[in-house]
Design brief:
This protein is α/β, with parallel strands linked by helices and 313 residues long. It contains 8 helices and 8 strands. The chain has an 8-stranded mixed β-sheet with strand order 1-2-4-3-5-6-7-8, with helices on both faces. It is globular. It starts with 8 loop residues before the first helix and ends in an 18-residue tail after the last helix. 51% of the residues are buried.
Length: 313
């Protein structure tokens, strides 16, 4: 494991509450939220040995992160979070870099179109096009993992459902980090989430759906999940999407999906963004890396889906 500073989780939690939560406000215009979130993401860490480059994938811009240990034959197609309205490959460089390190893979973060300028189904179409481009380039589906956080986690599921319905070969596995998968925002957990609020989620859902029907693809918590690949779900115990993640895991299990749910005790929404700054965040990404390697055939021996201790010492 790379050397990590031992930051106090309480300090990081306070930083998130004071610097990020006010930006994620239903009252703040998207045109202001985007640069503010981009600025906040500059406070991050990245492991040594990472190379980044901008590529075009399926006609879309994407940022590719590789580590000196990365296998070019293993790809994680990463779909960033941000309520379908914010975020970019640059806001998620830290998590992509640590995932490249621990999954020993090429991590490609897609710059998919955002709402309200491009409501549903634009993001799904972009993700499907990027995945199809990987296949067209000769990448075996068994060496591709779809991963995403928050809205990106929901987009991973929507993309997998679209691929399944089209008869396309499915990826080796899915990774959902604090996934937002119920756009009705009707059954949130009552926790002291330092980042997210229900009003902001509702406003993001309004912008993304744009008056269209709330069908199963856009609201995957209520979709038929049968036949989807092995799925790993990470969620913090202190976030308002905890109940949704638990419901999704139960729903997937009932549909026969090989699903692993890991609840990160004492942690919050997409804590993984603090990899390299917070020990538990880095360990969570390492756990995801184990899962990716196992399901793409490059496992080093640790049991897939087994959560590492999330010590916050």
């Amino acid at each position: 494991m790379v050397s990590m500073p031992k930051l106090d989780p309480a300090v990081m939690r306070l930083a998130v509450r004071t610097a990020v939560r006010p930006v994620l406000s239903a009252r703040l215009p998207v045109r202001l939220q985007r640069p503010l979130i981009a600025a906040a993401s500059l406070v991050s860490a990245r492991p040594s040995g990472i190379t980044r480059r901008t590529i075009t994938l399926g006609g879309l811009s994407a940022e590719q992160a590789t580590h000196t240990t990365s296998d070019p034959e293993t790809v994680v197609l990463y779909l960033h979070g941000g309520g379908y309205t914010l975020g970019s490959p640059s806001t998620h460089r830290s998590i992509a870099s640590y995932l490249a390190r621990y999954a020993q893979a090429t991590v490609t973060t897609l710059d998919y179109r955002l709402a309200p300028e491009h409501p549903y189904p634009a993001a799904v179409e972009d993700a499907v096009a990027a995945y199809a481009a990987l296949l067209a380039d000769g990448m075996p589906p068994g060496r591709i993992v779809l991963a995403g956080d928050s809205a990106g986690g929901g987009l991973v599921l929507s993309t997998a459902l679209r691929l399944r319905s089209s008869g396309a070969p499915l990826p080796a596995a899915l990774v959902l980090i604090s996934p937002w998968i119920d756009l009705t925002v009707s059954d949130l957990s009552e926790t002291r989430d330092p980042m997210l609020s229900a009003p902001w989620l509702r406003e993001c859902a309004r912008r993304y759906i744009a008056g269209g029907p709330l069908d199963a693809e856009v609201d995957p918590l209520h979709a038929d999940l049968a036949g989807l690949p092995p799925t790993l779900i990470h969620v913090g115990s202190d976030e308002i999407l905890l109940h949704d993640a638990k419901r999704l895991a139960a729903h997937a299990q009932e549909a026969g999906v090989d699903v692993t749910l890991t609840v990160l005790e004492g942690l919050w929404h997409v804590v993984h963004l603090h990899s390299g700054l917070l020990r538990a965040a880095t360990q969570a990404v390492e756990d995801i890396g184990d899962f990716v390697r196992h399901h793409t055939g490059s496992d080093t021996g640790r049991e897939a889906g087994t959560a590492r201790p999330t010590s916050t010492e």
